[in-house]
């Protein structure tokens, strides 16, 4: 089997060299029509060789399928870097792309890296940010979004300006920078300068983190009074009978006919005489 493989490889190499040389010669002399005919004849020779040694080619393909899964994980980083370098990306751009792919799955690792410490120190990501607006009074709302059609606007918000900052409910250190330690509420976007699109994602991530128990949630304290929830109160208890009650009279005195005071009635009629009919 090894001898057959070697012979087949030698035949294919010779055919490849012959095809390349013949194509080059025909390009110089005869033109494209003869080159197409030569390419067709070469393909027929290869097909015939494949029909003669089907077992050899099948074994070679199976060996390649077996080798690829074991080799690919070991050299994945090498091939990715090689592809980026072949596209003309090198230096700081290549490092930023690799860092972005590294922090995409685990964004909380960026806040523990040396790069973050050098850029922000111990401050929050929005501490040194200043909004860019006309006049001395800032608008009541921040911009809708900082990135439109893959183009970043001038002076983007604290989250959009750094591609390594990714909002995720497990990125607790980032979420705590946007939550007030006194009230437990998320800071308004006019204070942090975050665009409205990122503010929505931030509010959703904070709610999800609290639902998973990653962020503490504060519940309001209510002092329950026992009198408000007891059945001994007069409004919910049994109606007490009047002090003096006789059969045939109303339960309360104001339920029956009340005779008004004659002097008070005359005074009221005198005041509203022009309006009475």
UniProtKB/TrEMBL annotation:
One MF annotation (Gene Ontology) recorded for this entry: structural constituent of ribosome
Gene3D superfamilies: Ribosomal protein S18
Principal location: mitochondrion
Source species, domain of life: Eukaryota
InterPro entries in the cross-refs: MRPS18B (IPR040054), Ribosomal_bS18 (IPR001648), Ribosomal_bS18_sf (IPR036870)
GO CC terms in record: mitochondrial small ribosomal subunit
SUPFAM superfamilies the UniProt entry points to: Ribosomal protein S18
Keyword Transit peptide: yes
The keyword Coiled coil is annotated on this UniProt entry: no
GO biological process: mitochondrial translation
Keywords associated with the record: Mitochondrion, Phosphoprotein, Ribonucleoprotein, Ribosomal protein, Transit peptide
Pfam families in alphabetical order: Ribosomal_S18
Intracellular or extracellular location(s): Mitochondrion
Protein family (similarity comment): Belongs to the bacterial ribosomal protein bS18 family. Mitochondrion-specific ribosomal protein mS40 subfamily.
Name under which the protein is recorded: Small ribosomal subunit protein mS40
Species whose genome carries this gene: Electrophorus voltai
């Amino acid at each position: 089997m090894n001898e057959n493989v070697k012979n087949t490889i030698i035949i294919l190499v010779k055919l490849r060299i012959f095809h390349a040389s013949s194509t080059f010669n025909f390009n110089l002399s005869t033109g494209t029509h003869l080159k197409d005919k030569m390419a067709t004849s070469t393909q027929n020779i290869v097909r015939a060789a494949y029909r003669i040694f089907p077992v050899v080619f099948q074994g070679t393909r199976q060996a390649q399928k077996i080798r690829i899964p074991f080799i690919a994980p070991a050299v994945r980083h090498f091939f990715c870097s090689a592809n980026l370098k072949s596209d003309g990306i090198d230096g700081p751009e290549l490092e930023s792309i690799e860092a972005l792919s590294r922090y995409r799955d685990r964004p909380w690792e960026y806040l523990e890296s040396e790069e973050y410490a050098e850029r922000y120190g111990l401050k929050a990501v929005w501490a040194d940010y200043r909004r860019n607006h006309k006049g001395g009074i800032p608008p009541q709302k921040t911009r809708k979004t900082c990135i439109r059609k893959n183009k970043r606007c001038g002076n983007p918000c604290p989250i959009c300006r750094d591609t390594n900052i990714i909002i995720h409910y497990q990125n607790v250190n980032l979420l705590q920078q946007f939550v007030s330690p006194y009230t437990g509420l998320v800071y308004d976007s006019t204070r942090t300068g975050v665009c409205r699109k990122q503010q929505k994602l931030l509010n959703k991530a904070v709610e999800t983190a609290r639902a998973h128990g990653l962020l503490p949630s504060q519940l309001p304290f209510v002092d329950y009074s026992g009198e408000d929830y007891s059945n001994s109160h007069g409004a919910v208890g049994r109606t007490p009978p009047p002090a003096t009650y006789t059969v045939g009279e109303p339960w309360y005195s104001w339920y029956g006919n009340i005779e008004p005071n004659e002097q008070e009635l005359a005074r009221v009629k005198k005041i509203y005489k022009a309006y009475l009919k």
